[in-house]
What does this fold into?
Amino acid sequence: MEVALKTKDIAATIKNTRKSLGLSQIGLSKVSGVSLPTIQNMEAAKGNPTIGILESLLAPLGLKIQVQYGEIDWDLFVRFGLPMTSQKNVNTTLSPEMLINILRKYCAILNENRDEIEQRKLEALQALLLAIKIQFPAYFRKNIQSSQIIASFVPLIITGRLIELKRIAEERLSKYL
It folds into this structure.
């Protein structure tokens, strides 16, 4: 069973799992090879362990670490110019720096799940990138062209629908780029 945990919940998970398995902190220290003070600090949510130490500690508990991409906040992405309709209003400061950070993060997530992207969302992203490439070429060259993942979403074939969506993206981007 996979459960996604926030960092603050890891300490409680370690402690609760250890106790449910009938292990003391000393016992966990012996089977994991992790020092007792490290275990005590982690269970008190004061530890800052390396991934290796965390893996050593979790293995005897039957737990493992899995790094995965997060989810895309499409409403936030719309706020930054994605030509789609937003379901809610997201209050955030718009800036060119924030845009490239969001593009990096979201394109990495989308690249990992390329086969599962809805066509309309892919077209919206392509239109946004096309708008940046045409209307803000210096920004495109500086921030997007050098990123292989982001650049891979720039459309090679431009359709009428992309042009229509590009106009919406241009209007939104012009407010802060």
